[in-house]
Structures are given as C-alpha cells and as structure tokens.
Amino acid sequence: MEFSPRTAIVTGSDSGIGRATAVALAEAGLDVGITWHSDKDGAEKTAEEVRATGRNAVVRQLDTTDLLGCAGVIDRLAEELGGVDVFVNNSGTGDGKKFLDLSYDTWANTMDTNLNGAFLCIQAAARRMVAAGRGGRIIAVTSVHETQPRVGASAYDASKHGLGGLIKTIALELAPHGITANSVAPGEIATPMTGQTDEDPTTKDRPGVPLGRPGDAREVAAVIAFLASAASSYVTGASWAVDGGMLQMGPQAGSHIATDDWREN
Fold first, then answer.
1. Which residues pair with 182 in a beta bridge?
2. By the 8 A CB rule, do 95 and 109 touch?
3. H or E element in which residue 257 lies
4. Beta pairing partners, 161
5. What is the number of structural domains in the chain?
6. Which pLDDT belongs to residue 209?
7. I want to staple 236 with a disulfide (CB 3.0 to 4.6 A). Which of 66, 144, 153, 180 is the partner?
8. What is the CATH number of the domain that holds 18?
9. How many CB atoms sit inside 10 A of residue 243's CB?
C-alpha cells in the first residue's frame, strides 16, 4: 500500500527549522501538531501559517527534559490530530561548554533534551504508527555534529551522535512495518539558535563553506518534506547533510587554517 500521509507532529516548531518544516508539511497537505518549550507566541504564529494553507494545526507545550511526561504530549497531539503519519524530532539545545568546564547538570540537561527525551517521543510516535498499520515516516533533525565534533560542544556532539545512531537502528527494526527513519543534519542555518533570527543568509559570507553562506531554514524543511513523502519510500537509515558542503571541507579546512583560534570556539 502506498504511503499517503495525512498528519504530522513537528517538535520545537515555534521558530527556525521547526516552523519552516511545519509549514512545508502543511503545504504538502498534512495537518500538523506544533510544540513549543518557552515561546508560546512563536508556536501560535507557526499555527497561523499552517492554517493559512487550509490545514489544521494543534499546539501543545513540550519539555523533552520531562522524561515522565513528554511521551504523553505526543500521544495527546496524535489523538487530537487523528493519528501521526509523520514525526519530526526537531527539539534540541546546545550549551557551549568545554569538556573540562562542563558540569554534570549541564551535560544531563543537554542529553535529556536532545537524546533521552527524543527517544521517548519518537517511541511514542512509532508505537502509534505500528498500531495504525499505515506505515510512517520518522525524521530526526540532528546536525553536522552528528558525525563531526566541534570544540566546546562535547555534550551536544555526544547527544547528536547518539540520536543519529538511534535513527539508524530503528530504521532496521521498523522497516517491516513500512516505517522509514532518517536523519537530516544541518550545518549553519540562519535561525534563532545561531543568533540569526529572520536574517537573509545570502547576505552572510562564509568562506569555509563551499556554497559561501549559511543555509535558510526552508532549505532544510524542503529535505524533510521529501523524506516525509511517499517519494522517499526506498530511503531509510540515512543521514542527509544540509550544510552547503561544509562536511566536505575537513582536510581542505585543516590545511588552510592559519591560526589556533579554532581551539577556542
């Protein structure tokens, strides 16, 4: 049976990549569950954009560090939407702490937000997909740091490595149910998380990125929308870099860095 999605949940969809994804899925004809952690107004703005496409939007607060409660939020959203055919795990945080300065509390908060809570939410969505028997799409927004490290990001890097590994494993286990699981790994994207709220990335110069600029959230959302569609039926267990070629610059960047500034950021 060809996959024909009707409903989606996008976590962390109050701004940035999450908002762009929610709107892209609505434009593809899906009703969308929207979650927010601290920006309710942002989530309502996303909902307005979804409804402007003629689709339904349901908004709920989600704290992925609430390990006892976060799966229940996904279940309630699915109930209100009438199911969940597509689940996009986009909620995430960073801490910017170097390893020797990293407290356990900060480590735990990053890991709970990015990995432990993500596991619980993804599992809740997957169980509903299996029970419905219509197949499904699970997509996790990781990062280029799913595979490559960054100074000052040991907890973030570990959580994104773990999330990428989780997606690859569930791709194997959920395949018999017609459910695919993939990661999308953004590079630098002009979003609030990178301090670039509503800025035009084409005005920014990034010599170390082959395409020469940061990405736009809608460019990431377009890849997610493809992975959420019937057209991606033979794609699973993959990690899709949306980074302007950044990951290809390892040896090239290494041989051209002229100072030790990289050790500090």
1. 139
2. yes
3. none
4. none
5. 1
6. 92
7. 180
8. 3.40.50.720
9. 23
DSSP class of 146: G
129 in any annotated domain: yes
Classify residue 181: in a domain, yes or no.
Answer: yes
Sequence-ordered list of residues with C-beta below 8 angstroms from that of 201, at least 6 positions apart, any chain: 189, 190, 213, 214, 215, 216
Cα separation, 43 vs 35, in Å, equals 7
β-strands 7-10, 86-89: how paired?
A: parallel
State which residues form the domain around 88. 7-264
Catalytic residues: 156
- 8 Å CB contact between 103 and 141: no
Q: pLDDT tens digits, residue range 85-128?
A: 999 999 999 999 999 999 999 999 999 999 999 999 999 999 99
Encode 4-34 in three state secondary structure: CCCEEEECCCCCHHHHHHHHHHHHCCCEEEE
pLDDT digit string, tens, across residues 56-79: 999 999 999 999 999 999 999 999
Q: What is the largest CA-CA distance in the chain?
A: 57
Has residue 2 been placed in a domain? no
